[in-house]
Amino acid sequence: MKSPEELRAFFHSDLKGTLEELEGIRRGLCRKMLTIGAVCGILALVGTALGFFLGPIGMVASFIACAVLAVICYFTCLHSDLKKFKHEFKHRVIGGIVKFIDPSLEYAPTGFIPQGTYMQSTLFNKQPDRYRGEDLVRGRIDNTNIEFSEVHSEYKTQTTDSKGRRQTQWHTIFKGLFLVADFNRNFHGTTVVLPDLAEKAFGFLGRMLQKLNIARSGQLIQLEDPEFEKLFVVYGSDQIEARYILTTSMMERLALYHRKAKGITGGNIFVAFTGRKIFVALWCLKNLFEPRIFSQNDSFSLVREHFEFMTLATGIVAELKLNPKLVS
């Protein structure tokens, strides 16, 4: 794993010049936005003034004209420039950080973990009505195949009000980094490790709900590690296999990784073992690996933030000792 000193040296030697170049482009985009905003604001004032003479219909027409003009200005003057700026930032900065972490890794800004792989994990049983992602990283670390990306899955609900109007609402199932890696063992069943939210929220009642298995198929696996069970609840199709996977050392490593992830993303982690794979979902509501538009991107602290998110994913091979065969 790269040290903070190596990251700082890389920042000055490889990224600083690129970031300063992109900073000039960003400032130009901000000036364009201010210009378009000022023009639209003036036109809105003119439309309001005309409204006093033309009446309510004239005022509405003026505001519609301003809105149409704002949309036209955005797509003709800004949309393509913003898209190009984002493209350059991701390829040159985020792509550079990926190669700095490990030259064998490949980065595809518009790629993401397929929905079929996401569902195969069984981490989130709700079938998404909308699924998207970006920032796919894949490669081989210490002889372990690994891939991860941002993923946002949602389901929709529809309601009808008293006037018969249908309303659609979207609800997040998962948003954050979704990771798949080899585990060097073929599991016969599935073992799922989830954040223990029920017991934290409802105490003894939460424990009873877990035993009743209301929200999750499979058996509740009770382990002999009170500290681990304060953080997680485990379900599995095979009690013996689940205990073979979740050895004392593996539980300790998962607990440490959970605390590290919580400190960086602020969210919980979800883990599943199935087939020959380990699936890890790192909940994070923040949109990762994106350039800022209204503030500077050329600081070392911002590069370090992108680096920490990236190494949280790539570091799982070492953190959970995925490379050696499963022992203890």
Give the helices and strands, then pairings:
Elements lengths: L3 H98 L4 E3 L6 H6 L9 E12 L2 E17 L5 E17 L7 E6 L1 H6 L1 H9 L6 E3 L4 H6 E5 L2 H7 L2 H18 L3 E6 L2 E7 L16 H15 L1 H4 L9
Antiparallel strand pairs: 1-2, 2-3, 3-4, 4-9, 5-7, 5-8, 6-7, 8-9
Helix pairs in contact: 1-8
Descriptive tags:
alpha+beta; 328 residues
Describe this structure as you would to a colleague:
- This protein is of the alpha+beta class and 328 residues long.
- The protein folds into two domains: 1-101, no CATH class; 104-328, no CATH class.
- It is 52% helix and 23% strand.
- The chain contains nine helices and nine strands.
- The chain has helices spanning 4-101, 115-120, 197-202, 204-212, 226-231, 239-245, 248-265, 300-314, 316-319; strands spanning 106-108, 130-141, 144-160, 166-182, 190-195, 219-221, 232-236, 269-274, 277-283.
- Strands 1-2-3-4-9-8-5-7-6 form a nine-stranded antiparallel sheet.
- Strand 8 and strand 9 form a beta hairpin.
- The model is unreliable at 199-215 (pLDDT under 50).
Short description:
By secondary structure, the chain is an alpha+beta fold. It has helices at 4-101, 115-120, 197-202, 204-212, 226-231, 239-245, 248-265, 300-314, 316-319, and strands at residues 106-108, 130-141, 144-160, 166-182, 190-195, 219-221, 232-236, 269-274, 277-283.
Number of strands: 9
Low-confidence runs of at least 5 consecutive residues: 199-215
Structural class: alpha+beta
Shape: flat
* Order of helix and strand elements from N to C terminus: HEHEEEEHHEHEHHEEHH
Question: How many discrete structural domains?
Answer: 2
Count the helices. How many?
Answer: 9
